[in-house]
Amino acid sequence: MLPDWNEIIRLRYQKAERMRSENIEPFVHRWLPSHSTAAVRENSAQLIESKEKVRVAGRIIALRMMGKAAFFHIKDESGALQCYVKIDAVPEHSFYVLKTYTDIGDIVGVEGEVFITRTGELTVLAQDYRILAKSMRPLPEKWHGLRDPETRYRQRYVDLIVNDHVRETFVRRSQIVSTMREYLTALGYLEVETPMMHPICGGANARPFKTHHNALDMDLYLRIAPELYLKRLMVGGFERIFEINRNFRNEGISTRHNPEFTMLELYTAYWDYRDTMDLTEDTIRSVAQRVFGATAFTFDGKEFDLGPPFPRLTYLEAIRRFVPGAENVDLRWDDPPEVTKAKIAPFFTPEFDGPTYQLLIDMFEALVEPQLQGPIFITEFAKAVSPLAKSKPGDPLVAERFELYIGGMEIANGYSELNDPQEQYQRFKEQMEARARGDEEAQQMDEDYIRALEYGMPPASGLGIGIDRLVMVLTNSPSIRDVILFPLLKPEKWVAGHEEDPEQPAREREC
Predict the structure, then answer these.
(1) What is the reported pTM?
(2) CA-CA-CA-CA torsion for 205, 407, 264, 238, nearest 10 degrees?
């Protein structure tokens, strides 16, 4: 017997078997509601006056038997509604099914007229009742109280049943994505699809998941970013394109990271990164206004407002602004590492030695990033960590790149796209040298992408927005697992050595 195979579950399976023995189907094939519970509420006055019959269906979330009558609440996708069954108003068979076989959690169908009880509650007076799908497992104790995060993430189906705010979060997520799609399409952007399996992993600095194609006998990688394929389409003549895509990075799991995540990535011909910052700001503000009807939000106990123009600071300005005492420190990308280390010593001790750009990045991530409640654009990143971005004219160590921060998290990343094939080839070579030194996240050489650039790609700017993180900050969700329906989790451990129960359903034994 499996460790959670308890007496309640056993009894419910036995009820289902008894129903079958009496020719009562515990899992019906079809039963069409005429109204949702929300439609009944919205049209209650008309339905009461006309005495029109309604057919509603949903899961029983509360049940009160009273001898020859019963009250229960059903819940469907749109809300909850009370139903009333009394012995002389329904066929004898229907009341028998209710009294003998019904449990909280069952999905049922009710047909009848709408009325208001003496206590003022809108109710369906049943003229017919049937079980549509028998629930074999009880809902959590006090059905509205499932709070354990591990259980919620692992059994999202139960989480959605009992926690209305969870359902609302995912409704909002869907609205955010669809609104973003509509907004960009109205601006003339074309939605495209690019491969999810790549022969060469590229487009970002990240460790990939590796797989193998048997028929072609070749290794493939789940994409870490669609960037290089989208820019191939720019070479082909598309000037405004976007993809809402799933990416996969073989990295750690945290409240801000899931190995499988969703991004919006777009490219615009003839723009640079400043134009794309404007688009990023306009898009996020517009999505917030259309979906939530507001620009002011709270995340992690702190307020931010998407209404005013988003401030813009360079990377080095941000360090001077947000690190107390560093206001007048002359930080430079071209300083020798030992000089930089001495300059930042009063404020930050790096864990490892490295080049100047890495020392400054480590300091930024430790001391500045958590303070960027934003929204705020950070610009002018080190070119060394931006291998696909154009360098700033007159400052070859700096890339024309930005990141948008909200709630202390990077929400978006964009830059002026490097379209010089010779320089891109050299950048790839530098990345390969980094890989040879042990950097597993450095990018690989993509010779076909170089060949594409040799045909000519117009000046362009790109953008990536982390959909999961954007949903987090707009819905005040503290963990990325709260906005991904089925986040990656460690395998659930079953108790070893349990014996099979021959009376237990075969499907349960196979689990």
Answers:
(1) 0.89
(2) -90
